[in-house]
Amino acid sequence: MTSRTANLLGLLVLALMLTAVFMVFYWVPTEADQGIVQRIFYFHVACAWVAFAAFGLVAICGILFLWLGQQIFDHLGYASAEIGMVFCTLVLVTGSLWAKPIWGTWWTWDSRLTTTLILWLLYGGYLMLRTMGDDTPQVARFGAVVGIVAAADVPVIIVSVRLWRTIHPAVLVTKQGGHGLQDPRMVVALLVSLAAFTVLFLWILMLRVALLRAGSRLHKLAGEIALANAALEDA
Amino acid sequence: MGAFIALIRKDLRLELRAGESVLTLVVLSLLILVVMVFALNAGVGPNNAETAAGALWVALIFAGTMGATRTLLAERENGCIRALMLSPTDPATLFFAKLTAGFLFMMTAEIAAVVLLVLFFNLDFDIRVARLAPPLMLGALGFAALATLLAGISGRVRTGDLLLPLLAVPMFVPALIAGVKASAIALTGSPLSSAAQWLKILTAFDMLFLGAGYLLFEFVMGED
Amino acid sequence: MEHFGFLWAAYSIIFTVIFLYVVFIWRRQSRIESTISALEAKMAELDAASNRKRQN
Predict the structure, then answer these.
(1) Are the CB atoms for A194 and A17 separated by under 8 Å?
(2) Alpha carbons B153 and B184: distance in angstroms, whole number
(3) Minimum CA–CA partner of C16 in chain A
(4) Is the ipTM of this complex over 0.90?
(5) Of the candidates A182, A201, A151, A162, which has an alpha carbon nearest to the alpha carbon of residue A46?
(6) Cα–Cα distance between A40 and A175 in angstroms, integer?
(7) Which residues of A touch C46 (CB under 8 A)?
(8) pTM of the predicted protein model
(9) How does pLDDT run across C3-55, given as a tens digit for each residue?
(10) Partner residue facing A207 (CB), from C17, C22, C54
(11) Structural domains counted in chain B
(12) Residue B73 structural domain
């Protein structure tokens, strides 16, 4: 994980992002019913993909951390959670900005947005735990447990919320009527957006983990200096 | 087995100390139900099954969270957690003992809440109320498992008593949705077979958290 | 071009937030790295000092 790899990856992110933006704003045809606002869909879904995938990664890293004990897994998990939180927030915000012009309301309790809101709350809980807790391996283990349990809960949440919504259909019908993408260009644009955001996530993950490791190194150094100082004074 | 019983007795004694806990619980459930009636401008009677079910579960979540928080604080103050960590009991037994105590506590809260519900919402003590038992018991079990696991964590973190509801409530959502739906179905007089899918969700939820507690409690109880 | 405002707002927010977050990480990284270099220099100093002491 050198800074050269990070820079190369960053360039790849830039290239993919530019392509995606070009596609979303120029190449893709305008959707018939919703007009240009529908273009929010591409990055909105991409953010949602990252938000959910990041959560899965938090859980996987949690399992690995509890099993193998190496700090890198804890760093990956924490970073993933923080980044996931950012993208989850973006999903909710872009979702609202899409809902308002299309359905006239900022928020709708449709199954996808509701599930994302709960995911946001779960992320919030995890991050509160890590920030309010001390920087100890014990708290890291707690984080791992919470991450694992929350991720395991997500499928149950999805099922229950979906069932809740179908039995009592919302006033507004489900968003975008599923992925009824009429034009193949829309599918391509979506895939490119997903790819761009995936690489973006991996890049930011690298940066964030590097920061966490630097923090650990700092901590260790400070400890070593304190010891060396003490040893000098005793001698 | 002896350790298991001893632990349950200790936790129950903690929670039922001088009966104050049970009384507080009943009063709390009463207050919350009153607030719900006003807040929701609830009509009363059998046509308001949905509202009644909702009010009931709100009361339960609050009671459950408060109960968990108080036990947590009590244990932290008495350095009980350290003592438990040092004991030779295996973590799974510890988990199930605490879970059982928590479950019994929740059941007590639920019985109180149901009685109050019947009184406040002009229901009858009939088969409809009896049909509340499966969703309520499954809900209590799930919440107890969840709270036991999370209380172990929140107890060792600063301002953990704020953290506990923050973590517990979002995780509890599927059980909440399913529990309210199943309870509403029960209160409208339909047989529980109509609530089958909701009960299945509750069961899946319980199995998830019982399993998670069994597997992960040792990491929650580890050394500092 | 109806609702263009919403489209514009959504994409601006996405890019702004991501940009700010990355910048935030970058700046903290540089600050930590300079602190680490300073500490490493201090550590080298202390090592040299303890070596001198041992030789005496």
Answers:
(1) no
(2) 34
(3) A90
(4) no
(5) A201
(6) 13
(7) 225, 228-229, 232
(8) 0.90
(9) 788 899 999 999 999 999 999 999 999 999 999 999 999 888 888 888 888 88
(10) C22
(11) 1
(12) 2-220
